[in-house]
């Protein structure tokens, strides 16, 4: 009988954003689908993933959907949009 390979995704050797994007692909989760589930634009999800807009609220929702917290950026300081420049 042929030996079975373990399905193991080692993301310890890449940066957080790459690990998160890889995890999403591995688990067949697309950004548009996440955006639809959360009622936001896909660009908003991308900004959360990159850490450009680490919304506490969206990060909490992504964790509730099953995305590992350690792959998400640290949440930003409180609610609201960042100030306009």
Fold and architecture overview:
The protein is mainly α. Helices cover 44% and strands 0% of the residues. The protein has four helices and no strands. The longest helix has 11 residues, at 16-26. Residues 1-6 have low confidence and may be disordered.
- Summed over residues and divided by their number, the pLDDT gives a mean of 84
Rg estimate, integer Å? 15 Å
Number of helical runs? 4
Poorly predicted tracts of residues: 1-6
Query: How is the main sheet built?
Result: none
Assembly status? single chain
Per DSSP E runs of 2 or more residues, the count of β-strands stands at 0
Distance between the termini: 64 Å
The percentage helix is 40-55%
Give the overall shape.
globular
By secondary-structure content and strand pairing, the structural class works out as mainly alpha
Percentage beta strand: under 5%
SSE run: HHHH
Kindly summarize this structure in a few lines.
This protein has 85 residues and is an all-alpha fold. The chain contains 4 helices and no strands.
What's the layout of helices and strands?
Layout: H1 16-26, H2 31-38, H3 42-50, H4 56-64
Helix pairs in contact: 2-3
Features:
85 residues, mainly alpha, globular, disordered N terminus
């Amino acid at each position: 009988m042929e030996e079975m390979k373990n399905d193991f995704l080692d993301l310890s050797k890449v940066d957080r954003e790459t690990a998160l994007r890889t995890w999403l692909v591995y688990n067949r989760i697309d950004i548009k689908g996440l955006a639809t589930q959360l009622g936001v634009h896909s660009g908003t999800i991308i900004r959360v993933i990159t850490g450009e807009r680490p919304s506490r609220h969206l990060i909490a929702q992504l964790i509730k959907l099953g995305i590992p917290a350690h792959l998400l950026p640290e949440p930003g300081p409180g609610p609201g949009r960042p100030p306009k420049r």
